[in-house]
Predict the structure.
Amino acid sequence: MQSLKIYNTLSREKEVFAPINAPHVGMYVCGPTLYSHAHLGNCRTFMSFDVVFRYLTHLGYKVRYVRNITDVGHLENDGDEGEDKIAKRARLEQLEPMEIVQKYTVDFHHVLQQFNLLPPSIEPTASGHIIEQIEMTKQIIDNGYAYVVDGTVYFDVEKFAKEYPYTQLSGRKLEDLLENTRDLDGQDEKRGRLDFALWKKAKPEHIMRWPSPWGEGFPGWHIECSAMSTKYLGEEFDLHGGGLDLAPTHHTNEIAQHAACHHKSPAHVWMHTNMLTVNGQKMSKSLNNSFLPEELFAGTHPLLEKGYSPMSVRFFMLQAHYRSTLDFSNVALQAAEKGYQRLMNALKLVASLKTSGTSSVKVQAQVDDVYNALNDDFNTPIALAALFEGVRIINSINDGKDTITEEDKTLLQKLFNEIVVDVLGLKEEEAGNSDKLDGLMNLILEWRKDVRTKKDFAASDKIRDELLKIGIQVKDGKDGVTWTVQ
Ligand code: AMP
Ligand code: ZN
């Protein structure tokens, strides 16, 4: 079997994964800005890292997985200007900023739980780490890579870029960046147009503010991740992840701040997930093409032909590699629904397979195919294809067309339980209460039909009357029997 290789955005190569302090692994993923509901695109990114977390754990690593919650400092234009996203929402909803964050954090956790994501080991908030962000900013100023202008602290990108590789992650040229950066408000304060704020002076109307050596203000968006990753994972750690859209600015600046403070790069491997798209366009709140997981489950969004269960959606996401874009489509979701069911049926069936003295199937080859796929930069679509070969084998043994030994059956069962359930996070979905009621009513009405065939009308009426007493009305119409809950 191959060893695990991960594509590193920094080197643009798949590298053999070699943790700094194995079996311990430090992994940081940029979390959501919780000023509104997380959309399905955000969920895709966190689901991809859930599989990374699960697979590393499965391989025996002791992973400390840190995923933050941005609750301050992320301004509307993702840069240094505009209103704070949380503060703006608080003003619109007439709530405390922390009420907004709490409301959407609860919702975020609920959604991720529905998709069966494991919680991270630590989920720190930016507002809970103001002191660490101030300390880091002070150190960057002391090291000569930041300057203060009227209560705001800017990072000096051009000075930094003379000594360190600033654009390594994005692969862009500094000259091109300089040319393509618009002049924004506050530009007159900055020495260079690429400089960004580590700390911002709070205007009088700004509600989220803290005292600092430079006056009252609030931290910039990028510094929070640098401060929190260092606090919980150290100055050098193994993995840093996020959506691909974060690489050119947020992550580039994270690396720069960290190097300016600690003279080293924070993470050895940088992983980036590609975007969930709708008709080829990135799903995004600002483009108005995003839909919420709840709308997807209920099928209430105009783009949806029907509702899809969380596990079918998880299966749909896993069918694409995390570095490829994934375009939303009803057809693909319907296929995913069927694929997920087939996989779950095989999972149930594998435990009850009859064994014999010889195997006519090659189980070890299946196991190797699945692991080789996952070891090749977490290639879930190839792993699923290999698992479906396993599904075919299971069905064929069940139909008596193939045979399997006890030993091979144990191997196959282990593969399905550990990879499908533990690593891919696909679990049997419980029928909802309405499905259960439907099933129960079908059973009762079948039974009633039976007693009527036997001309036991007293029993038939008793069933109808007793159901009515608990609020279920049964009607015998000319097209058959119907029932309603009153
Ligand atoms: P935000 O709350 O906007 O900061 O985003 C949280 C995470 O979701 C970030 O890692 C983004 O890169 C990621 N993200 C945003 N839009 C999409 C999308 N359409 N598909 C996949 N990931 C996304
Ligand atoms: Zn971040």
Q: What stands out?
A: The chain has three domains: 5-273, 277-423, 432-485. Residues 432-485 form one domain. The mean pLDDT is 93.
